[in-house]
Amino acid sequence: MNKDFAPYLARIEEEIHKALPKVSGKEWQDTVFGQLYPAVTADHISPLITPTRSLVDLGGKRWRPLLLVLTAQALAEKDGGTKDPSSSNKFETACHLTPLVEFTHTASLIHDDIEDSSDTRRGQPAAYITYGLDTALNAGSWLYFAATSCIDTLSSADEALKARVYALYNMELRRLHLGQAMDIAWHRNKGFIPNPDEYLAMVQCKTGTLASLAVKLGCMACKADDSTAKKAGATAAKIGAGFQIIDDVINLSTGNPGKKRGDDIVEGKKSLPVLLFAQSKGNSSKEFKELESCFEQAAKEGINSPAVEKAIGILEGANSIAQAKQKGVSLIEEGCAEFADIFGSANKYALLIQDLFRSMVPANI
Q: For 258-306, what is each residue's pLDDT tens digit?
């Protein structure tokens, strides 16, 4: 990753650890919970912090909070800013809001693993396996709400800005859960095959909404006009959808980090390679029926079923995985070009945003 990102990533980690400490102290408790009964101790709060903080500490690219900060910097440069935009109140506001994006992402992963019955996340057992379904479900839900404490503690924001951020957060969260609802319904209804446009609408909500949230928060931190925020948010959602497609492709090629190659097949996911195959061959064709049979066998036998590799071979043979990769890359490249139009093609931070996105597309898929 570009060495210019290092100071921003270090600052993001500071904000994350401040907003979600390993052990809760009184000041943090008062911020997140308000005044508690004296009988409540750190031990009672631990079942909320431990599962969520453990997943945060396992890593992740942090590209969403980084995108938030770079967006704010790009707008500061576009507007003339200061010689050192990192010293501005707008930059401080953007950094302070980064947990809102990262914690929402973390909460969604905890719930996603429960809903998909996934065994692993980031190379470790999923939270619901380690801590129990009830504890993981509750902790993940809590983190959606705890994430907003960084709005309450904004020192430089007026009440109108806080209200705008809250409204944006609630809207994007509703869209995220809509996307997840569509995805769950499709892979549970074995006979329904969405078309590629429906799939893109789903991932714009499920994955694109967090990218959109990050960019819009960066715009709000800089008090950008609504038109700029809306346009930049739509561009980010497009790029987020592109990365979801790339993840679909990785799942069927090298395998996603910390997960097993082809587990989307076991889960019955209607990913873009599958939908392009259905569109090409027809839902009633012999070829598609063969693919369906592989999915059914893999669902019964698990990730080690020979049906997983057979299904991947069918999709590779029809060039569906390569076509999906091209669609994902195209969405990302289109988004990068749009960001250059919004912020200026020579804008240092717009160029860093482009570099961030392009560096995240693996060369070996």
A: 677 898 999 888 999 999 999 999 988 999 999 999 999 999 999 999 9
Task: State percent of the chain over pLDDT 70.
Answer: 96
Q: Are 179 and 203 in contact (CB under 8 A)?
A: yes
The CA angle 13-18-20, to the nearest 5 degrees, is 95
**Closest Cα to residue 68, out of 4, 9, 151, 108?**
9
272 domain-assigned: yes
Give the integer Cα–Cα distance in Å for 219 and 213. 10
Among residues 354, 204, 188, the alpha carbon closest in space to that of 272 is found at 204
The structure's pTM equals: 0.91
Q: What is the pLDDT confidence band of residue 3, given thresholds at 50, 70 and 90? A: confident
Name the average pLDDT for the chain.
Answer: 92
Our count of domains for the chain comes to 1
- pLDDT score for 283: 86
Domain encompassing residue 26: 3-359
Q: Does residue 15 sit within a domain? A: yes
Rounded-to-integer distance, Cα 216 and Cα 221, Å: 9
Note whether residue 364 is domain-resident: no
276 within 8 A of 323, measured Cβ to Cβ: yes
Would you say residue 365 lies in a domain? no
Of residues 41, 71, 77, 2, the one with CA closest to residue 221: 71
CATH code, domain carrying 81: 1.10.600.10
